[in-house]
Design brief:
The protein is an alpha/beta fold and 566 residues long. It has a domain of 82 residues: 2-Layer Sandwich (Gyrase A, domain 2), CATH 3.30.1360. The protein has 22 helices and twelve strands. The strands form four sheets. A four-stranded parallel β-sheet has the order 5-4-9-10, sandwiched between helices. A three-stranded antiparallel β-sheet has the order 1-3-2. It has a three-stranded antiparallel β-sheet with strand order 6-7-8. Helix 5 packs across helix 19, helix 13 packs across helix 14 and helix 20 packs antiparallel against helix 21. The longest helix has 25 residues. It is flat and about 90 Å long. It binds arginine. The site of arginine has 9 residues, from loops.
Length: 566
């Protein structure tokens, strides 16, 4: 892409020698109203240097600025020098890039040579993978894709919750009341039942708690019987989780969960002791964080067993040693903000200079219209059920609107799943929100299906319009306002991806694709595209092709498919 801004900066530097080019670059603005120009240079700060009014300075600069072919006009307006880029040059430049870069359009090399760990999803085994996990799963997947597109070498990690005292309870419960075949048939539902039963029975028979602690100790000491049972819980749970991941098209490079760090714990605790970070408190070892305005973090319990945060300290150190990350990103709900603050502070106190490269990316909660969820009470909405229901409902909609569609089932999967994903990604991540079927599956408004539908509309135009040589079109046909608005939006894509990465915010991209779809639909309603005049037809189809490609690339960054027909 031509760097118009740099060209303007170098033109201005020739005229204003007393200001550094870097500073000039920082002063350049993009006017909110594109009628004013594509770039503007404010002269107010120069007034003091030149002892002239901003108006006069702007007029002087505008009068002397060398007009090159890439410029349509340079004008002084109220203390600003406004630059308009020549429309045809801009159209050819942007569309030329989309057409030549295709699936790579919008990508960059800003992260080349850098490694980023993106940890997301991380459900707890033997517990439901429910609607509450959807945000970490979908947002994390998107952040992983965005970083990859920005050139980073990413490692996606599923930090499974597969360790802790609850497995002692589960072993006791399974040995007492479990039936192997039932667990094999519906692992998580059965294991959850057993877990709930354990808590009910333990109220009457507190010795069960002791037995559970005993079993967990055995697990920690690698007692074969305990390990075997735990491994089986893990295996059957993972099998169930994988079904969800495959529906969502999500893969992980590593499933190193909490248990992976169990044997690395003594070393970590030793290091903390050496640094005098640990204090005894009622038999437990803690890190006092009072000086930093935080409650203490418990590192080992009185029986010597370790905790969630201990495993996180080990995990962070392991990741640094293994991947030498540039950033270590945790996509975990806002309930754990304090946990990650403590974690990062402790790493800092342990002398890890890279502690600041660990980033917690929090997000708000999802509520259901029916009210809040409660695992203990069995009021849970399984993620798999939500996804399947979304596909079913989409199938019904397709049956009503377009019953002859080929590949109906696959399209329903792409659209139904996409709808759910988009819903998660279209609110800025930190906001709490209420999940609504109605809104999620609407084909209108700012939804996933709406964007996918616009993509399919472009495909259909390209099929109808006949073959043409991409790149061979007359840019002057696309200089009207409606077309130009689309092209300006296309031209912003690369910067949008970069902003989404910088802010860890996929919503920046979902906003972008909705805006692009709306701009294209306005164009579609105002202009006929497949017209007799071949020159006009070719140009408009080329634009449709660029919109289609950019929507597809944007959707891919959200983890969504872009079907050709809907
Ligand atoms: N398993 C945890 C949960 O379900 C989330 C793990 C988050 N990641 C971490 N490194 N602590 O709440």
């Amino acid at each position: 892409m031509i760097d118009f801004k740099s060209k303007i900066v170098s033109g201005l530097s020739g005229l204003i020698e007393s200001v550094e080019p870097k500073e000039i670059e920082g002063m350049i603005e993009v006017p909110a109203d594109s009628n004013m120009g594509d770039f503007a240079f404010p002269c107010f700060k120069l007034a003091r240097i030149f002892r002239k009014s901003p108006n006069l300075i702007a007029e002087d600069i505008a009068g002397r600025f060398e007009e090159e072919d890439y410029l349509e006009s340079v004008a002084s307006v109220g203390g600003y020098v406004n630059f308009k880029i020549d429309k045809e040059t801009y159209v050819s430049d942007v569309m030329g890039d989309v057409i030549s870069q295709k699936d790579r359009y919008g990508s960059s090399c800003e992260g080349c040579g850098k490694k980023v760990v993106v940890e997301f999803s991380s459900p707890n085994i033997a517990k439901p993978f429910h609607i509450g996990h959807i945000r970490t799963t979908v947002i994390g997947n998107s952040i992983n894709r965005i970083y990859k597109f920005l050139g980073y070498d990413t490692v996606s990690v599923n930090h499974l919750g597969d360790y802790g005292t609850q497995f002692g309870k589960l072993i006791v419960a399974f040995s007492s009341w479990g039936v192997r075949e039932d667990v094999e048939k519906e692992p998580i539902k059965e294991l959850l039942k057993l877990y709930i039963r354990f808590h009910e029975e333990a109220e009457k028979a507190p010795e069960l708690e002791d037995q559970a602690r005993e079993w967990f100790k055995r697990l920690e000491n690698k007692d074969p019987e305990a390990v075997e049972m735990w491994q089986w819980f893990r295996e059957v749970s993972l099998k169930e989780f994988s079904r969800v991941y495959s529906l969502l098209d999500i893969e992980f490079d590593s499933y190193a969960g909490e248990s992976f760090y169990s044997d690395k714990m003594p070393e970590i605790v030793d290091q903390m002791r050496e640094r005098n970070l640990l204090e005894m408190s009622q038999g437990a070892e803690i890190v006092n964080l009072e000086d930093f305005g935080m409650p203490p973090a418990i590192i080992t319990k009185s029986d010597g067993s370790t905790l969630y945060i201990t495993r996180d300290i080990a995990a962070a150190k392991y990741r640094k040693e293994t991947y030498d990350f540039y950033k270590n990103i945790y996509v975990v709900g806002s309930q754990q903000i304090l946990h990650f603050k403590q974690l990062i502070k402790i790493l800092e106190l342990m002398g890890c200079q890279w502690a600041g490269d660990c980033v917690h990316v929090p997000f708000g909660m999802v509520a259901l219209e029916e009210g809040t969820m409660s695992t203990r009470k069995g009021r849970v909405v399984f993620l798999e059920d939500v996804l399947k229901k979304a596909v079913e409902r989409t199938e019904e909609i397709i049956e009503g609107k377009n019953p002859d569609l080929e590949n109906k089932h696959e399209v329903a999967r792409q659209v139904g799943i996409g709808a759910v994903m988009f819903q998660e990604l279209s609110n800025s991540r930190i906001k709490d929100y209420v999940f609504s079927w109605e809104k999620t599956l609407s084909f209108e408004g700012e939804t996933g299906p709406y964007v996918q539908y616009t993509h399919a509309r472009c495909s259909s135009l390209l099929r109808k319009g006949g073959l043409f040589e991409a790149g061979d079109f007359d840019a002057s046909i696309l200089t009207d306002e409606v077309s130009m608005d689309i092209i300006r939006q296309l031209g912003k894509f690369k910067e949008t991806v970069s902003e989404a990465g910088r802010k860890y915010e996929p919503a920046v991209i979902s906003r972008f694709v909705v805006d692009l779809a709306q701009l294209f639909n306005r164009f579609y309603h105002e202009h006929s595209i497949v017209v007799e005049d071949l020159k006009v037809r070719r140009a408009r189809l080329a634009l449709a092709m660029c919109v289609k490609q950019t929507l597809k690339n944007g959707l891919a960054l959200l983890g969504m498919q872009a079907p050709e027909k809907m």
